[in-house]
Amino acid sequence: MVSRVIPVEDFDLVIFGGTGDLARRKILPGLYRRFLAGQMPDSSRIIGAARSEMDDAGFRDMVAEAIAEFGGDEGGDAACLKRFLDRVHYVPVDARGEDGWAELAKLMTRKGCEVRAFYFSVAPGLFGDLAERLRLHKIADRDSRIVVEKPFGHDLATARDLNATLAAHFAEDQIYRIDHYLGKETVQNLMAIRFGNVLFEPLWNAHYVDHIQITVAETVGVAGRGSYYDQSGAMRDMVQNHLMQLLCLIAMEPPSMFDADAVRDEKLKVIRALQPIASDQLVRGQYAAGDGQPSYRDDAENPDSRTESYIALKAHIANWRWAGVPFYLRTGKRLKARASEIAVVFKDLGHSIFPEDESRHRNILSIRLQPNEGIDLQVTIKEPGPGGMRLVDVPLDMTFADALGPEAEGVPDAYERLIMDVIRGNQTLFMRGDEVEAAWAWTDPIIEGWEARGDRPVAYEPGSSGPEDALMLLHRDRRRWRDIKTEVA
Ligand code: NAD
Is 8 touching ligand 1 by the criterion CB < 6 Å? Predict the structure, then answer.
């Protein structure tokens, strides 16, 4: 199977914060990979803009180092890298002052380039300054696009402010709010599986689905970014955006077409149909010290911290399709494996014709985001060989690396895909302003609830599956979490 690379239109992409961590780890190596794949037109330019004093040559050295350190040079050679770096420029710019803006404006006067995109890879506190100055200096016009990173607000009020600030200078169809989970191959495949096959959609409802689990587990702690994380916590940092987006794609009604607003309208309806969460539907945890590693509170340098590094909750969507079906969400740091998965657990057979008690056999559709992006469907078959009609569950594995062979390696990572979508002007995989606000409107009262009650997170062992209380959340419902594991069974 050969994946097709369709070049995008000629573009100029300005990366504000081009010297920062995100640009070096993800954006710049990703752009080089797209260049190597032939997707980036020869005349296109990438312009770093940040506070550091540097010239083109200095920035090109930095970009080359970032590519060498964070990958992206597979299949390229020195000549390719040079051709890419020739397209890279740098302007020192101060978002908060006037320095550098005239130079940037001058650089952006290139004729014949239709697409101008501005990636705000800087702290959200600078978004308003950048938006305003881009307009003031006539660097951006009605056709330009801006890309903004998470976190998009700290709560509903700040998200509204941020939306209003951006809306003062750019229309909604110019604003690309990144949630990189939406750029993952498997997440899009989730839509293909649901809406491109006749098999699944008839079963995708409360009649056939027992429950759904969404897990995003990490092995790392918060060391190095503890003071930022302590102001945020797992609910704000992960659930309000990434897990919520996954939930939306799993639960939404089929859009009438695969179009940005049609998809986002359906996602919005899911968020608005989420019921409030009571205190017994939620468990928060903090990792304890262990394995020679510090505790969460030590990493956060806050001995009294009440911020959660783990959260598990049971959500319900109040509509006809999902009435009574629990959605169990959990995410945490310092867990036993780095694994992200959505599992659709179907109901038991209504009646088993087989001799032994087969109630334990269930169909499970599991969508793995990492590692080994792929989808598998657990089906029940006869155990091979003599010995009567004994049943066994086996996965029908659709790991892309196996199905697509070497071509799977050419699959762009989330950032690459999303940046190319910005250039194409396709907003389907970006969050709309009203979606983000609706997500905060659901999240805020949950956080306010535990703050008002003075709840403290419970401690959990590092390297475990999370707090015992989180296991109980499902046991009470006679269900179990799926194992958090790195390798597919
Ligand atoms: P960083 O601190 O490493 O880099 C910040 C960049 O902003 C630098 O290039 C700096 O020169 C520039 N900058 C700071 N003040 C400026 C000013 N006044 N004018 C012009 N430029 C200025 O930050 P980062 O980790 O790259 O994160 C950037 C954004 O991306 C943040 O909003 C962050 O929340 C978000 N984000 C980062 C990651 C990540 O993995 N690093 C992941 C998701 C989201």
Answer: no
